[in-house]
Amino acid sequence: WIKAFSWYRVGIDFGVSMMIKPQNVTGLLLAVKGSRDMVILQMVDGAVKFTVDNGRGLITATFMPTDSNELCNGNWHEIHAVKMKNVVTLSVNNIFAQPGIGVLPGVSSTDTNDPLYLGGHPNPLRIGLSPDQYVPFVGCMRDVVIESVPLEIKSNMLYGDIHSHICPTI
After folding, report:
1. pTM to 2 decimals?
2. CA-to-CA distance for 97 and 54, rounded, in angstroms?
3. Which of 2, 75, 117, 139 could hold 22 in an S-S bridge, CB 3.0 to 4.6 Å?
4. Environment class of residue 17 by beta-carbon count within 10 Å: exposed (0-12), middle (13-18) or buried (19+)?
5. CA distance 89 to 135
6. What are 72-76's contacts with CB under 8 Å, separation 24+?
């Protein structure tokens, strides 16, 4: 996995975009979890799910491709996930999923001050995934932009079997 930030506060608004070339239909793309609040972006059986918890329950947007293997076709795929207060939006290859809308009036801030991980997590139970539910991302990821700032991936951010700046042909 990649530890993009040692301490990250999501707050009221949050946006992430990335290009992925997955080799598996299931895998964790991004996670940050506070004491209660969290943001998780993951692939589950070919779908892409963006889930936020502001402390009043899960808010989720899910992109369902026409075929569960659609994103594992060897091509790059563009993902945009945005949280605005208690609304989450998700698009894959510029196709938007149904937005997720939280409880109204809702708590709009996602209170985290914890590490933000890409591609996996050192403690899946911490983000609510049991060992049989947790699958790290397998594939390639590039052009990660968090809050309009391109992420520069450095060697000290890499943990496990990760190679930066290369993507083998699938």
Report:
1. 0.94
2. 20
3. 139
4. middle
5. 23
6. 72/22, 72/23, 72/24, 72/25, 72/46, 72/139, 74/21, 74/169, 74/170, 75/21, 76/19, 76/20, 76/21, 76/142
Q: Which amino acid is at 53?
A: D
Find out whether 69 and 25 touch, Cβ atoms under 8 Å. yes
Structure tokens given for 88:
């989450």
Q: Give the tokens for residue 8.
A: 């990250």
* Amino acid, res. 110: T
Of the chain, the end-to-end C-alpha distance in Å amounts to 20
For 113-141, what is each residue's pLDDT tens digit? 899 999 999 888 888 888 778 899 999 99
Tokens 């196709």 map to which residue? Answer: 95
Measured CA to CA, the distance from residue 117 to residue 135 in angstroms comes to 14
Using one digit for the tens of pLDDT, what is the confidence trace for 25-69? 999 999 999 888 999 999 999 999 999 999 889 999 999 999 999
